[in-house]
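Record minuted for everyone:
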Amino acid sequence: MTRRIGVLLSGRGSNFEALAESCAAGRIPDAEIALVVSNREGAPGIDRARARGIPTRVIPSKGLERETYDRQVAAALDEARVELVCLAGYMRLLSPFFVARFSGRILNIHPSLLPAFPGLEAQRQALEHGVKWSGCTVHFVDENLDAGPIILQAAVAVRDDDTVETLSARILAEEHRIYTEAVRMVLEGSYRIAGRRVLSAAAGR
């Protein structure tokens, strides 16, 4: 049975495209992106999804309370029979309603080694702090910002001559790789959660 993924985005949709490519190539087996939703008119990610023939919805969020808006998004995902929700540059904090509605079925990718540098401009934060390593994190989403249990991480060395742009580009390549791995792992159910730790299912055998 083909598993159905919903993607929420606000911008260019780079991680959405990586997931779409992975589904098409079988790197995420027996899965498809069933719906792409944007809270912003004119998001390039929506155009990219339409070019691939993937169903899309633009549900403008401006002026709406968080839960009011999230109920509209949840209804669209339910209508598309989405099983797993993937955030891909989605610039909104989810409401407790939405997190509960899709509990354990929402993933996010963040361009830092969480819990370091949550929130916006994580790459700039890393450079300004002077760290020698940064990277990216795929995690389950809870009600707090960039704070859910960590599924996978990838480290990226920070070079002395890095700019926000050069560091972001190297981190993005790793984002594309580990998001695919994390989605496959979650859809296969090959993990378990112990406290805040996401462990391979084999670890408890």
